Amino acid sequence: MSAMNAFRSVLFVICMYATMLVMGLIWLPALVLPRGATLFGIRTFVRIVRFELRWICGVRTVIRGQENLPPAPYIYAAKHQCMWDVFVPFLISPAPAIIMKRELLWYPVLGWYALKAGMIPIDRAGVTRALRAIISTAEERAGEGRVVVIFPEGTRRPPGEAGNYHAAGLGGLYKRLDLPVVPVATNSGLTWPARGLVRRPGPAHFEILPPLPAGLDRRELMRRLEAVIEPASAALLEEGLAAQGRRHEPMEKA
Description:
The chain is an alpha/beta fold. It has eight helices and seven strands. Strand 3 (about 95-100), helix 5 (about 110-115) and strand 4 form a beta-alpha-beta unit.
């Protein structure tokens, strides 16, 4: 990693969190207004971060396949490689409801807005109780016409590593909500690794794949979901590495 790339990466992180703090303070009145004001503020923040990521770090966010999106509500089930994956749904939908770790609600600014925006917190301490709470809240959000966002692997994984798709969380949502599932592949971890400050120039692709219909058997859903996300993400990995002029060997050191 060059010294200039390291400098740009640190500068981006500073700018991103400074933007979060400044916008969070400016937008405080939205916390007592209808939810739409908060969601608009979050979308504005995400657009600013996308601009910072592009012009400071040289990372272009490329979203493909939006023609595959059905009318909301639906379940957005995405490959998860980095923090940026959580923001991208706001570039696709005006009001995504993201299933997120409950601990994030404790963060100043971020937690306030996540709570007001109606995100779906998960308490990992009690699996059965947490699942019931998630399904109940997700049902409310879907009833509002919102997109429910879930990362079926459960955690971030480096590019090229196949995930362990969990049937319990997504399967329970899928059965209760009776909605189509939109698979989303990515290679975002090539430009924004799961850990560390490094941001590598290049395209961060997000590919929206054709939706899987409601009404499938849970096991069939998970099988088909993995069968479309993993090959698409592998193809994006090759495309991203080629754009960066890299090969698979140095990828672990990203």
